[in-house]
Write a structure and sequence with these properties.
The chain has 272 residues and is α/β, with parallel strands linked by helices. Helices cover 35% and strands 18% of the residues. It has a seven-stranded parallel sheet with strand order 1-2-3-4-5-6-7, covered by helices on one side. The longest helix has 18 residues. The structure holds zinc ion (ZN) (2 copies).
């Protein structure tokens, strides 16, 4: 197996997953993974316009309690990281900073799930704009957010927005959005932040992983070295999914190593 970890996994501690943390771990171990990291959702100030109040507020203490139990069961067989997928939001900078400071996570993914108080998952986001406007607004918002908050290890699914556009990725390329993507990549590199390779896009009907292989290549050209790999699985069937596509993208971009974080420190693994 070329990639031995899955560093983006959710369990029922995330409001949009129904699978227990233990079931996720059992399946990951059955698949032969040597390291997994749970990255449950924590989104402060999430506007619950469609109900489900508190859905993305993590019960961090219960999560840690369960994780430590399952981690001990797999000692010596598979490492289990204690991570979080933290929602970037300009009015949550202080809450995010305090939260991360007060918890000893192994790995922090920063992800943008909202733009201008709207969740692009719902079609309303694209109702009054073209896909191009919607994508540009998303990239600009990532840039604005990471300029305000940096206590994270890796930027999650940089082109997540493309999943939800009317045309999805049919008219989407790195070149078309380079002027908005390059500043994000340069900022990540300057601040020693990683870029996540997330395979969920393929399960959502896209042709490629997040980010597009050309973006991954550009990150490397600019000097980026920290790429993590995750499936963003919310159930057992998605764990380590489409890793063949992840390998292809890494190879295309010229990476010989990927990395995993424990204790907020990157450990490099050679791609074999
Ligand atoms: Zn996410
Ligand atoms: Zn996720």
């Amino acid at each position: 197996m070329g990639i031995i970890c899955d560093t983006h996994m959710h369990s029922s501690f995330s409001g949009d997953s129904k699978t227990s943390l233990r079931d996720m771990a059992v399946r990951a171990n059955d698949l032969g993974l040597k390291m997994i990291c749970f990255t449950e959702h924590m989104d402060f100030n999430f506007p619950y316009l469609k109900g489900e109040e508190g859905m993305f507020t993590l019960n961090t203490d219960s999560y840690l309690y369960e994780l430590l139990k399952v981690r001990s069961e797999y000692e010596g067989k598979m490492d289990i990281g204690y991570g979080v997928e933290l929602g970037l939001k300009e009015d949550a900078v202080r809450q995010n900073a305090i939260y991360i400071k007060n918890h000893e996570f192994d790995y922090v993914i920063a992800s943008l799930h909202l733009v201008n108080e709207m969740d692009p998952y719902y079609p309303e986001y694209f109702e009054d704009k073209t896909d191009e406007e919607g994508y540009v607004t998303y990239f600009k918002s990532i840039y604005d957010n990471i300029n305000k908050f940096q206590n994270f290890d890796c930027l999650g699914h940089i082109d997540y927005i493309v999943r939800y556009g009317k045309s999805k990725d049919t008219d989407y390329s790195y070149n078309k959005y380079a002027e908005y993507i390059d500043p994000i990549l340069k900022f990540l590199i300057e601040h020693e932040k990683g870029l996540e390779l997330n395979t969920a896009g393929i399960r959502k009907g896209l042709k490629n992983v997040h980010p597009l292989p050309d973006i991954l290549k550009r990150y490397r050209e600019l000097g980026g070295e920290l790429v993590t790999i995750g499936s963003d699985a919310h159930d057992t069937s998605a764990i380590a999914s489409d890793y063949d596509k992840a390998m292809e993208a890494l190879e295309y971009a010229g990476f010989k190593y990927y990395c995993m974080y424990m204790n907020r420190i990157a450990e490099f693994k050679k791609i074999v």
